[in-house]
Amino acid sequence: MELLHLIALIAALLSAGLMAGLFTGYSYSVMPGLKILDDRSWIAALQHINRVILNGRFLSAFLGSVVFALIALILGLFLDDRSALPWTAAGLAGTLVMFIGTMAKNVPLNEKLEAAGDPAAIPDPAALRAETEQTWIRWNHVRGIAALLALAALAGALYTTGQVA
């Protein structure tokens, strides 16, 4: 049981780390880099990014961060030493904030951008950008911070197990 718990914690830690890197990378490089684009080019760039990110690597880390943290929490309930449980619960909470924020805020904005169709045919691309850009960026910051906090908490859980020094 301890080995399975350790494996789940490591998988949760790695998945949360991948998501923290992705979302914070968007915050400090991708979105500021795209800011210079005109409205139609900005919409086209986001549409393309949103299409290509839906792949097995992204989905494995995105879903894995929640699933592995949950598995680690459940397995931790069956251990004699439950000192990692608060850290694991905090890690799970962070991954849930990241996941729910993405699904409730960023995904609907991505869908709105996609539904607008060909950027060259959008009658008022400035209005669409104004409707989506700042909210998308704000919620990306939230999910990036949540993933970073989850990463830190899961590192705390792993350290608390005494399996790593």
Automatic annotation (TrEMBL):
Keywords in alphabetical order: Membrane, Transmembrane, Transmembrane helix
InterPro entries given in the database record: Anthrone_oxy
Determine the domain of life of the protein's source: Bacteria
Record-annotated membrane-spanning stretches: 6-26, 58-79, 85-104, 144-162
Specify the protein name. DUF1772 domain-containing protein
Q: Which organism is it from?
A: Glycomyces albidus
